[in-house]
Amino acid sequence: MKRVLALGAIVGSMAAALALLLLRVPLLPSPASAEAQPIDRLFGLLAVIAAIIFAIVTGFLLYALVAFRRRTAADEGRPLHGHAGLEALWTLVPLAIVIGLGIQGGRVLRDITRPAGGGDALEVRVQGLQYAWLFEYPDLGIRSTELRLPAGRPVLLRLTARDVIHSFWVPEFRVKQDAVPGMETRLKVTPTRVGEYQLACAEVCGVGHSFMRAKVVVLEPEVFREWAAGQVAQATVAPGAPQVEQPVVTAPGGGLHAHTVAGTR
Amino acid sequence: MTDVVIAAPRPAARLALNRLGLWLFFLSESMIFLILLTTRFYLRLERPPELNQVLGLAITSILLLSSLTAFRAEAAMAHGDRRAFLRHTLATMVLGVLFLLGVVGFEWREAPHMGISVQAGYGIAFFSMTGMHALHVLSGVLLLLMVYLNGRRGAYSPASYWGVEATVKYWHFVDVVWVFFYPALYLVS
Amino acid sequence: MRILSLGLVRGLLAGLAGFAAGAGVTALARAVSGLPAWSAAPAAAVGTLTGLVAYLLAAGVFTDWIAWARGAEASDPRHGPAHGPGWTRYFNPDPSHKVIGIQYTVASLVLFVIAGIMALLMRLELTRPGLQVLSPQTYNTAVGLHGIVMIAAILVGIAGPINYLVPLMIGARDMAFPRLNALSFWLVPPGALLVVTSLFTGGFNTGWTGYPPLGARDPLGAQFFYSGVFLVGLSSILGAINFLTTIFRMRAPGMTLFRLPIFVWATLATALISLTATQFIAMAFLMVVLERLLGMGFFDPAKGGNPILFQHVFWFYSHPAVYVFVLPGLGIISELLPVFARKPLFGYKWVALSSVAIAVMGFFVWGHHMFTAGLERPLIVPFMITTLLVAVPTGVKFFSWLATLWEGRLSFETPMLFVLGAIVIFLVGGLTGMPNGIVPTDLALQDTWWVVAHLHHTMYGGFVFPFLAAVYFWFPKVTGRMYSERLGKWHFWLMLVGVFLTTLPQFRIGLLGMRRRVADYDAALGFEPAQLGTTVGGLLVGLGTILFLINLVRSARRGPLAAPNPWRSRSPEWQLCSPPPEENYAAPPVVVGGPYDYGVAGSAYVRLAERPATGALTTGATGGR
Ligand code: HEA
Ligand code: HEA
Ligand code: CUA
Ligand SMILES: [Cu+2]
Fold first, then answer.
1. Nearest CA in chain C to A73
2. Pocket around ligand 1 at a 6 A CB cut-off
3. What span, in angstroms and rounded, lies between the C-alpha atoms of C580 and C480?
4. Would residue A59 be called left, alpha or beta, if left means φ above 0 and alpha means ψ between -120 and 50 degrees?
5. Which residues on C lie below 8 Å from A157 (Cβ)?
6. What CA–CA distance (Å, rounded) separates A214 from A211?
7. Which of C173, C245, C296 sits opposite B17 (nearest CB)?
8. Which candidate from A98, A109, A180 shows the least CB-CB separation from C388?
């Protein structure tokens, strides 16, 4: 009994300390999309569960290291072979936790992928290529190498890739989606915080992968509208006209060049 | 250090080991064909209507027939009938070579004229599946040749003919693979 | 002694010559058929094939088989070097499972050092932002090589203890197919050589996963990488056939399935995976090579292919493979804990069956590597559920280990320290796998250094630490000499601190946005201190490894002679002298009880005929038949 109490105290305090640490220290970049909130809550839940399980196992180990040391060379332990009840316990409890996590994960997934109602979403076509991103707003007739988005409105990104696989990722938005040649993948994000972010290609795509970034700017809706209007007025090319010039990527130190590095075979 | 020769398991035990090993090998090999089969369907490749159905049926029949002769070769050896064993082994080899000629000699030559290219579309599946299978038939023919030569020298007896058994089983295995490949390539669209 | 009497040297020289010949013939054939004579890719492909055949022939791997194919009586495999001193047998094809086990173990350490040097190269580049030492191309190659050579080190590393121990543990004389076993090992050196050659032939950019379309467009190095992996895979398939046949058919009398040492169960589960899944990575890589060489567009959407297909085929192996890495390790943990706790393994049957459960469930989770990749929508949630379920049988192992310690009498020699370290490190790896397995959180984590940290934890805890524990534990059995405890403890602490120092910063910056496989990162992100931590961690591991190698070499030559059974283990191999005799047991041992009845008075596990037992354990003959 004394043993169980001591053990409980060790495990309990370790779990509490660890969970507090994980929840208090900001571990993720500050969120900037509506999708980030449920995801971050899920991270929090996982942190607590992980802290508890970690404390149970390591707390027990620490206790055993001290309490069950061998004293004399010929010392033998108590021959316990097993215990059906305990086995059932530590099969069923993790099973329950894991199913619970699965359900919760499924719910959050449904929430963050639910299509925006009523054609409300802003559609952006995103094309990844070695080593740049191109954005096209089919409804507005704009093309750009920067992704500008209005705050508070769901955006439906329709991703394709010209050459190899790339991956669209803005850490502050949390969500990520590969752009795959030959197919269209979709990603819904709802930016919530005005500001400048960095889009970084998350799937290795060649020598310029490190530098395949693009600027993402989230604007107040009015500012976005002004920008869009300005772009349309400026644009001399109508949508459907020749492709945007293949951008040249310059990399610090490398002087990489889209034409010289693509498809080095 | 001196040479140590370690007594191997007794013949009966040895045979049991060999058999289990062979079946595990088949299990492992069948995965290769499963992958090719899956690839063919995952890519939803369209079968071109011009495919030479007569040839397909012909080579399939040849291969099935060869399984029969292979079976009789093994049975003959089990009964100690060396002449029949050699005859049937030879027949199996000839049928195997005919199959190879049919696939590699005719089909592969004809295919590009029917719009089946190695590089794209249905041809990817067609060439990779028939190619991988042909490679196995070829190795089967070589094994049969080895068994044939050894058999002629009198290396096998009803009491000990593992080489024959293994080769014939391998031959059946390769045939069974074709039983799955044939409809996937020629019948389903 | 002539250097050419070493099969390895002969083989490698012949392999080089064969490669040159194959490449030359290809050029000739091309010239004759009116193509431009020199084209590196096909020449290298043919050269690889001819080089491999020449290597195997010259090394002598096929000698017996050729004789057999030409009608010679199937002879018993010959053991021991035909001529030359005893150590030369380790450099020649030798059918003895004990020789092969040592060959595998040493090869694994060599590969670990090579891959570790690649890691240090990467660390050199990443410690500070900006490009300093490596070009992005070299960096990418270093990442891929580091990953794949480490993975090869694992595949080879598990085969070491398995080969050495399984026949001894089940009371067999050798593996079922000793010559095939030798072939499995001898495929490893050319495989490793080919993979490393990629560094000098243009490199490859894909990382160890080799995804097309990038992999299909990469320089020639990629072709060497793919072919090298192919050979290592073949080796592991052939090994699995051997392990399974041996375990199923060559157990000593009385060695029922539920009396098998737990390590044998782990081997069984592992071999089932290797046997049926390895074809998938082999075929995935073969298809890319065919796309590169012949333009077959398996993965090229313009030609009717699909890049996602590759990922399915690749991960159908490569996820189960992680359980290949880890199951033998977990088996070693379960094997050693009872010895050092002087207690029965708690819940033996559950631990044994959980290995099989993990192996089987491992086949249904591969999609979790593709959550952001364009995986078919309806499959996402099912893959999430199956992934999470694997935690249950893994948990059974953890809790059984803890219960094994309860009321035990623990002692803390080096193997035990590595076992305890393994438990903690693998626990962190497993728990950090959970957020990967849950789709919404994985959307943030995929392709970040969080995953990098997760994989290092699982592999360090699931393979490296248990493997090192095994090396220390069985060192006196293999060499007859004792290693140095003092160096062993230094090694352990350096490794433990080094691993956490490597991975904790990786977790941290992974969450903050550090992407995988980048040669450079934005200085503004403030990752520099974390990157420095990782580098220092890697150096500590390197230092520990050097101490370890010194310990091995010195102790094998000059260590104090070890008692036959210094750990008072009940396992049959410890009842033999050290090193064990060439033929293992004079007669098959008879199994009369359970394997882990530590502390049960008068219990016995095996009874050996003739050769005297070491006393401590095989006293009473109770509980027999
Ligand atoms: C030894 C190797 C090994 C092992 C054992 C594991 C084990 C697990 N892995 Fe890991 N994994 C890798 C090696 C390994 N992994 C590698 C190499 C990669 C990267 C590949 C690449 O390069 O892309 C990877 C990547 C990877 C991904 C893809 C990440 C991404 O790219 O986005 C995922 C996603 O689900 C994942 C999940 C898991 C899970 C759920 C487990 C589980 O099996 C873990 C189960 C264990 C525990 C959970 C701890 C013990 C359990 C208890 C104490 C019981 C109680 C626990 C609970 C109730 C939670 N792993
Ligand atoms: C068993 C597996 C294993 C092990 C042990 C390690 C060990 C290490 N790993 Fe590795 N790692 C992987 C498997 C492993 N890794 C895999 C699979 C990947 C993914 C690859 C990919 O993305 O494609 C990866 C990726 C990976 C990355 C991510 C790269 C990126 O995405 O950009 C990094 C970055 O720091 C890293 C670092 C390290 C370090 C510092 C160590 C250190 O712990 C290593 C320390 C070891 C040594 C330093 C060698 C010791 C020996 C000597 C130095 C002896 C000296 C010589 C003589 C005596 C002759 N690893
Ligand atoms: Cu595009 Cu990485
Ligand atoms: Cu996985």
1. C411
2. A 53, 57, 94, 97-98; C 209, 322, 325-326, 368-369, 387, 390-391, 394-395, 398, 427, 430-431, 433-434, 436-437, 442, 445-446, 451, 454-455, 458-459, 462
3. 9
4. alpha
5. none
6. 9
7. C245
8. A98
* ipTM for this model: 0.91
Tokens of C134: 């490596």
Counting as contact any 3 or more CB pairs under 8 A, the partners of C are A, B
The reported pLDDT for the residue numbered B182 is 93
With the CA atoms of C471, C474, C475 and C481 taken in that order, what torsion angle do they form, in degrees rounded to the nearest 10? 170
Tokens 């949508």 map to which residue? A239
Give the C-alpha distances (Å, rounded to integers) separating C522 from A211, C131, C453, C527.
Answer: 9, 11, 20, 8
Q: Do B28 and C240 touch (CB under 8 A)?
A: yes
Strand partners, B148: none
**Per the structure block, which two tokens stand in for C192?**
């490793």
Phi, psi for C82 (deg, rounded to 5): -65, -40
- Compute the nearest-CA separation of C618 from chain A (Å): 16
- Cα(A176)–Cα(A196) distance, rounded to whole angstroms? 18
Enter the tokens of residue B143.
Answer: 């094994």
Contacts of C597 in chain A (CB under 8 A): 79
Q: Which ligand is nearest to the CA of C450?
A: 1
Q: Mutate which of C384, C447, C504 to disrupt the A interface (most A C-beta within 10 Å)?
A: C447
Q: What tens digit of pLDDT does each residue of C275-326 get? A: 999 999 999 999 999 999 999 999 999 998 999 999 999 999 999 999 999 9
- The single-letter code of the amino acid at C85 is P
Condensed to tens digits (0 to 9), the pLDDT of residues A130-170 reads 989 999 999 888 899 999 999 999 999 999 999 999 999 99
Residues 58-117 of B with CB under 8 A from C: none
The whole-angstrom separation of Cα C470 and Cα C157 is: 11
Nearest to C85 by CA among C9, C185, C2, C10: C2
Taken in order C451, C457, C460, C461, the sign of the CA dihedral is: negative
Q: How far is the CA of C432 from the centre of ligand 1 (A)?
A: 7
Neighbours of ion ligand 4 (CB under 5 A): C 319
Angle at C580 between CA C577 and CA C582, to 5 degrees: 135
* Chain C residues closer than 8 Å to A71 by CB: 409
Among all chains, which residue has been given the structure tokens 């010209």? A162
Q: How many CB pairs under 8 A join A and C?
A: 275
Classify burial at C204, counting beta carbons within 10 Å of its beta carbon; exposed 0-12, middle 13-18, buried 19 or more: buried
**Residue A175 · residue A189 · CB < 8 Å:** yes
Instruction: Let me know: does C273 contact C324? Beta carbons within 8 Å.
Output: yes
> Whole-model pTM above 0.90?
yes
The single residue listed with the structure tokens 């090998």 is: B25
Structure confidence by residue, pLDDT tens digits, C462-489: 999 999 999 999 999 999 999 999 999 9
Residue A165 alpha carbon, nearest atom of ligand 3: 1
H-run or E-run covering B66: helix B53-78
Q: Does chain A touch chain C (at least 3 C-beta pairs within 8 Å)?
A: yes
Angle at CA of residue C193, ends C452 and C222, nearest 5° = 60
Instruction: Look up residue C310 and give its two tokens.
Output: 């590759």
d(CA C448, CA C452): 7
Task: Determine the 3-state secondary structure of A157 from DSSP.
Answer: strand
Atom in ligand 1 nearest the alpha carbon of residue C442: 32
Any ligand 3 atom below 6 A from CB of A205: yes
What does DSSP assign to residue B161?
-
Helix or strand (DSSP H, E) at C249: helix C221-249
Q: Which atom of ligand 3 is nearest to the CA of A206?
A: 2
The sign of the torsion formed by the CA atoms of B148, B149, B150, B151 equals positive
Q: In this structure, are residues C466 and C332 in contact, taking their beta carbons and an 8 Å threshold? A: yes
* CA-based radius of gyration for chain A: 26
